[in-house]
Batch of 2 targets.
Target 1
Amino acid sequence: MAYTIEGNSGRWEVVVGLEVHAQVISNAKLFSGAATAFGAAPNSQVSLVDAAFPGMLPVLNGECVAQAVRTGLGLNAEIHLHSRFDRKNYFYADLPSGYQISQYEHPIVGKGVIEIELADGSTRQIGVTRLHLEQDAGKSLHDQHPTKTFVDLNRSGVALMEIVSEPDIRSPEEAGAYVRKLRSILRYLGTCDGNMEEGSLRADVNVSVRKAGEAYRTRCEIKNVNSIRFVMQAVEVEALRQIKVWEDGGEVVQETRLFDSARGTTRPMRSKEDAHDYRYFPDPDLRPLVLDPAWVESLRAALPELPDAKRARFIGDFGLSPYDAGVLVAEQSTASYFETVAAGRDAKLAANWVTGDLFAALNRKSVTIEGSPVTPAALGALLDLIGNKTINGKIAKQVFDEMVETGAAPDAIVQARGLRQVVDTSAIDAAVDAVIAANPDKAAEYRSGKDKLFGFFVGQVMKAMAGKGNPALVNDAVKSKLG
Amino acid sequence: MSLDPAAVRRIAKLARIRVADDALPQLAGELNAILGWIEQLNEVDIDGVTPLTGAAQMTLAWRADVVNDGGDAERVLSNAPDRDGQFYAVPKVVE
């Protein structure tokens, strides 16, 4: 069922395209030898190139090019062996040279595709128009002084990849899934850390609305949205705003807007006259960028297994559901944890433990899977204890909780607490007899046909045995004694 | 291609150069003379000539991904017209 918004004049479709700015992982900047680390003292990571001192010349960082090519390969995109750097001219206080070095007419990466997975299990292909390399600007702080703006150029010149999607996205959910998937691919590739809080990944969201079957109507661009949740909200509130404009007899004007997360609205940016007259031209300081096909192939050969391939393998080799496989591959560290637990064991059981009890425990402790108090080997050992019937599933949860708290090995916990499962049928029979003797009225009801009481008896027996009875054997015993 | 005074005013504004209105016609004349001179290139017949992507087909030099610059805020701020601590300070520009 396609996403639509019901207006007064009927149903509206939403059309969305995203421009994602992803900060390239590199030690040094795109055209200088200054560092890129986040959070340094103001202007401490600035070369004279980044500060645009007269006569300073840019020299391209080869690793940033490699990162862009890896990303292009990961997006199944065309790699352009010939590309070029252009100057995008505009004035702003945090852009000391008065132009940003970018790639306009000839980007390094052309058309590609990202497959997104939706909550109903379906998938969609979202086109990628292009990826190009460009410099980040510096950072302006407007709230530190009553009459002045402070400028920190540490970010100035850091390499960004601008990744532009086709207007193929049709709902807030798809917009969120696209950013999530792109982020996951970038993190697998090691080309961007995807940290939206630190601004390493930010999205410009282009939104328009239309009636079914129409051509595209005028779009608005919502700038610098810095979380996946906000991307989804921005699509929705901007679509609602535009529908109201159209239905009130007005016309949507193409403009740049800001998302106000506190109010949940978008508002126009102060209109910059001539803002879009960037007067691009080839940067005369930089030669055209020409790549050796053999070098591109060597990067391709060194790519890691990406989320889609891993997901297909988890479904095919381990028999996982597409949903579970999708959850497990979203982060490389989760996938690798799962694979260690699942190796040589019941993979579905492993998936349930990782996505269930483990995720819950990590949440509770506010730690990432890298900092998990339970190692994959220890969780595997716990599953082995279930597999060889040393403990039952319910006791296993109790053991797991203790592993989370103490980091102790599962067999040591089972040993110390005497949690070994009771498979001795005479002990089980005795417990069943005692429960029946203590509940003669319920036993009579069961025998006269009230089948639902079966669960009551199993529960009472398990309780009497401190949860350690083998569930199958307990079931058998209750059935035969009451039968 | 020919520029009228209005186009010159716009170019000057984009470049943040203040030009008095009465200076525009003369500036337009000078710019048009430059453009006219460069337009002589259009006389060259380039049908069938592959565009030259770079002088002498040299490839772009690359630097290694090594931090070997920065770490000297004082030098960077040395010609700032105004500063506050380690920040450049400029007249407030609020979006």
Note: The mean pLDDT of chain B is 87.
Target 2
Amino acid sequence: MAVVTYRDALTQALREELQRDDRVFLMGEEVAQYNGAYKVSKGLLDEFGPMRIVDTPITELGFAGVGVGAAMVGLRPIVEFMTWNFALLAIDEVVNAAAKMLYMSGGQYKMPMVFRGPNGSALQLSAQHSQAWESWYAHIPGLKVCTPGTPADAKGLLKSAIRDDNPVVFLEGEMLYNTKGEVPDGEHIVPIGVAELKREGDHCSVITHGKMVLVAMKVADDLAKEGINIDVVDLRTVRPIDVEAIARSVQKTNRAVVLEEGWEICGMGSQVVDFIQRECFDDLDAPVLRVHQEDVPMPYAKNLERAAKPDAGKAIAAIKKVMYLD
Amino acid sequence: MSTDAKRAPAQKRSDKGSPGNNGADASPQNDLAATTPEVRRELLRSMLLQRRFEERCAEAYALGKIGGFCHLYIGQEAISTGVMSMIRPDDYVITAYRDHGQALARGVSPRAVMAELFGRDTGSSGGKGGSMHIFDAKTNFLGGHGIVGGHVPVAAGVGFAIKYRRGNQVCVCFFGEAAVNIGAFHEALNLASLWELPVVFIIENNRYGMGTAISRSTANEDVLVRAKGYRMEGESVDGQDVFAVRECMARAVERARKEKRPTLIEMKTYRFMGHSMSDAASGTYRTKDELEENMKRDPILLLHNRMFEAGELTEGEMHKIDDEAKAIAQDAWDFADASPEPPLEKLYTDVYADTSS
């Protein structure tokens, strides 16, 4: 098993699927000549040429719509948004067109396409460039939403997303591109909709996804030194969501903290807590707590930004609280 | 930007196959003289079917058999009929929400359209789409879209796919004049011209975006300047004259098929009904006089008169064609009315495809 970066794992997935199926193409701003704003498409123009690795103008609504049209008539577009913050300009094509086409047409027009790009905050990019969008897209029937937190999941899920006949919103962690991890050699597929228990413990469940998986793993390491062992349930996909995996863990630990990068109100955690109260009502020994971004636009100043973000310290405090240790 | 990037999806290619069409020769010389009486009769038949079908839709709406938003095409039939008569069965059509007439002109089953409007299981989308979302994969009729301008980039995407596959089809995209102010339209035109995509963009200029006159919505009422802005060929044509529509389409289709270049066409028309079933034909935002003046240029009447004057249509024949159109509309109504509602278990089907490649 090779150790590769999250970025290279994504590039591998793109390259393998472009080789596998000539209906697959990648389009977006700076994906070709520039090799990708985050270098995820590095080298692909040379290998696959300008018909399949397509630079677009800065016109998110326009090229997202081009992807929809191409998918309607049988191509398999991968539409890259330079960041998901810019995808708001294209949300009509994602939500009103791609997500609903199969239903509105009574099953006649499938949408085999992927919208992908970096999601969540980086460092000091302030309000308009630091947002986690998964709860927005997870709200929409017709979409699938992937939030890989590790290189192996990034590769395996992207390959599944490209092969899926439905529109998949693929949210990459902007701060994850340089992180490294083991990726299985050869064909590596991760099914959409299946969570993974990334760490096993009996004391509390931490349910998370995306970039926060790394935070949860650090929390697990830190707490282990204190003799507290937690389950880390990595959802990996937030639509569909693996309710059984959540329930299995909470029924074992009887306590849960939901950790996410986005805001509190109508966040992914709201939905996870709803599933827990329905599936695990009699199993709970404490109220479920949530850790998330503070309810403010992301500030620029280092200290304020740090205070606004969810982190290991906040997660540990929440875990201790549900364990009545604080 | 370098030439390579600019031309990315627009590589040189050689056309294969020959341009056939639905009963008409797609040459620039196509005009009244070049068509045959049989073709002209087909055009009349198509336009009358739309008119009679839409009249029955209005009736069904009043009776509560059709619900939701319902936008009728009456007055604009020369456009749908003229355009569809100039393209091939393997070409693509995409449109906005005033879509019944275009679907019929394209050859979508009147029964399937009416059943869709009635919300029945036998409808074109199994009753899940309704008036604004007529889709028909058999005739490459790509919908029926409800967000003004939203489908214009989708048309560019269809053009992109044609180019990607080195095909020689064209994609025809209809929208109203109010859509020329929305961002999606501009982004799509820029991409279609930049990448040289085989798309014919058709503005059906009926002069009102819902209840707002073009003079109240559009800084430059000459909507064709938008073609120039994107280095695209543009033409303006009398949309009430089916022959003018056909001539103009012949040039645009040729340009798309042979040269892989898009065209923006303004087709000047007028809707004889309200924007939807919820507003009066006149009295609020346009006067009765204006409506009546425009109804003198009824596209069906204009075609009828020219055929009548040419001595190729008798009043008796006209009545016969009209009766046939009425019978088809009645048959569609009867079929829809007798069709079952979609079974409740279909509520959850077609949300996701259960397949992968």
Note: The longest helix of chain A spans residues 6-20.
